[in-house]
Amino acid sequence: MSYFRFTSVFLSACLWIPEPSDEGGAAADTDTDTDTDTDTDTDTDTDTGGGFDVDADGHASEPAGGDDCNDDDAAINPDATELRGNSVDDDCNDYTDELSVPRAYATIQQALDAAADRDTVVLKPGSYTGGLVVPDTELTLVGEGGAAETTVSGGSPVIEVEPSIGRSVTLAGITISGGTVSFPSIGAGVRCLSPGTVTIRDSVLTDNGGAQNGYGGGLGLSGCNAVVSKTSFHSNPLDIGAAVYATRNGSVTPSVSLTNVSMTGNAGVAVWVTYSSLTMDHVVVSGNTTANNNGAGVYTQSVVGVITNSIISNNYSTSSVAYTGLATTGGVTVYYTDVWDNRSGSSYALSNVNTMTVFTAGVSGNLDVDPRFTDTDWSAADVHLRSSSPLIDAGDPAGRDVDGTVADIGAYGGSGGSW
Ligand SMILES: [Ca+2]
Ligand SMILES: [Ca+2]
Ligand SMILES: [Ca+2]
Ligand SMILES: [Ca+2]
Prior knowledge:
Layout: H1 3-14, E1 99-101, H2 108-114, E2 120-123, E3 126-129, E4 132-134, E5 140-143, E6 150-153, E7 159-161, E8 168-172, E9 175-177, E10 190-192, E11 197-201, E12 204-206, E13 219-222, E14 225-234, E15 237-247, E16 255-264, E17 267-286, E18 289-290, E19 297-308, E20 311-313, E21 316-317, E22 325-327, E23 332-335, E24 338-340, E25 343-344, E26 350-351
Parallel strand pairs: 1-2, 2-5, 3-6, 4-7, 5-8, 6-9, 7-10, 8-11, 9-12, 10-13, 11-14, 12-14, 13-15, 14-16, 15-17, 16-17, 17-19, 17-20, 18-21, 19-22, 19-23, 20-24
Antiparallel strand pairs: 25-26
The structure holds calcium ion (4 copies).
């Protein structure tokens, strides 16, 4: 008996919760309740545990405040194992006929290998071992309880995806950590060298890199497209692309889209993209620091793209020749973006160095001001804006926040700002 089941049984024995009418249970109606609602069921269940747990599977019905999504079937409850092919959500997690780890499949890799296109592999809350390969299958790997309750760690990389052209692999609701990569390889956390698309949302990529001599700590791409949203990259140690690294693979140039993303406390250049197209919208790249020569912040070369509604601040490199802050060429358009207090040189003596950049404060909505974040402990920064921040309502006026006001600049502005 699981702790949860024990708790439910225990509570059912101790508490009386008002029963819902007409649960439809099969037990004989021996109490004196009357059928008061307007559905076609008759009131036959109210005497079997007071409507609290009609099917006696240890889980109260949802109308009674419980978590049993079908209180007429004892085989269906949150402790059940998901069965495939029956079009039933057996384990009440809002996914139907998913490949469930670890109940139906002991390991993530077993589930990935068994999956077909459009399948979903769902992880129960817990910690899992990385070193995974997602085959060329259009699938979703998701943590049922979100990134706060689901961690996949270790491996080189933690997760490799291999989608062919036109296919997409989605990773969602997962903390991906502890990956390593060594020169000349790409990608410690998530690696994609295939010409399809990797989609990452509602996730955390942290502590990936380690060796300091490969490319791409959190996410490494070569000729692979990426769509990343509502995701944080923090404390990834790697010089070149601590958070995201992307480049072409032969003649295949990737498209990289980052929306509502934060990158803080990484050791190295957070975004390093070459020979690609790049969109950064509502991205924070702040508090990334390195003692090595390549710099910190954002670096692009031979890239066409747009950076908007974003913040690039407090990135420090001890090298006097580093590309610290925003270092990009004319192929990238920058607007409604704040670039502030990036420094390089010994003891970070050179302020706001933006070598190569096309950025000009005061033009195209661009700013050079203190963002006034809630917290600047960069190892786990809360980059929500304080109410006094000059970046509130300072984004592209064509965009709106979820509250209907003009979009804020930063990771929590715009229509996708709730995360
Ligand atoms: Ca039940
Ligand atoms: Ca049930
Ligand atoms: Ca399910
Ligand atoms: Ca099922």
